[in-house]
Amino acid sequence: MSAVFHSPSRSTPRGERPTQDVTTRHNGKAHRIVMRPSPAAMSASLLAAIVFTVLLEFLVGISFIGQGLWSDARLFRDHWFTLPLYVWFGVVALALIGVLRIVSQCVILHDDRIKVRGLFRIPRSARWSALSRIWLVRDIYRGKEPRDPVESEVDAFDAALIMRSSTSRVANLSGAFYGTRAQSILVREAEAHGVRIDHIDHARPGELARMMPGSLTVIDRHPNMFVLAIVAFYAAHNVLTFMIWGI
């Protein structure tokens, strides 16, 4: 099935409720709207970090604690012997960076421009007049069939792609991270500044990548390969740990 479009409209996601992740600040005549990921998204990132650093590293933990390797004379002196622990330190560092990227990210709507900033991120900024359009994608599906249209109509958009051009994305206010209220505010502000807004009902990642090469990240375009890479990494790490430390 190819991407399904419908004509632009002023309708926004329904079921809006005030949330703590959207704040408006006034400074004289100028104003800005600061939008952050929802508390649910932040909690999910913390849970994912625990899963990646603890649950999926169970063999490392069992071997290290069960054998009391913290007192082994070879630890940090024999780098091959310490390799499983070095790898775990790397996993913890990446998980921490991932959590900080999510909880610190914010999208700021100014009178004249939109900015995206956060820890471990390259700051991005674009004037409203420089935006080509905003794509509201109701359902990005990877299975055989998209979601039921009646069900998806009341949900947040899977993606709100703020595009400077077809190859340059400023930000993506996904419904999973920002919620319906933030997306509604984005639409309202964009319409007030004359930015074109187009809707897509259903699309696969590959279709979006062909339409807008810069709209999706590598992980968004190839989620299955990303999952396989994670599985392969943890399998290799556990096998390496067993070979060096045993159980």
In short:
The chain has helices at 39-53, 58-66, 79-104, 149-153, 175-192, 205-211, 218-221, 223-245; strands at 4-6, 22-27, 30-35, 106-109, 113-117, 124-127, 133-140, 159-165, 168-172, 197-203.
Break the fold down into its secondary structure elements and pairings.
Blueprint lengths: L3 E3 L15 E6 L2 E6 L3 H15 L4 H9 L12 H26 L1 E4 L3 E5 L6 E4 L5 E8 L8 H5 L5 E7 L2 E5 L2 H18 L4 E7 L1 H7 L6 H4 L1 H23 L2
Parallel strand pairs: 7-10
Antiparallel strand pairs: 1-10, 2-3, 3-4, 4-5, 5-6, 7-8, 8-9
Task: Give an overview in words.
The longest helix has 26 residues. 25% of the residues are buried. About 6% of the residues have low confidence. A hairpin with a 3-residue loop joins strand 4 and strand 5. It contains eight helices and ten strands. It is of the alpha+beta class and 247 residues long.
Fraction of residues in β-strands: 15-25%
Average predicted local confidence, pLDDT? 85
- Contiguous runs where pLDDT drops below 50 for at least 5 residues: 7-20
Largest sheet: 5 strands, mixed
Q: If you compute it from the alpha carbons, what radius of gyration comes out, rounded to the nearest whole angstrom?
A: 22 Å
Biggest sheet: strand arrangement: 1-10-7-8-9
- Class by helix and strand content? alpha+beta
Q: Strand-and-helix sequence, N→C?
A: EEEHHHEEEEHEEHEHHH
Ends distance: 50 Å
Counted beta strands: 10
- Total helical elements: 8
**Shape estimate:** elongated
Residues in helix, %: 40-55%
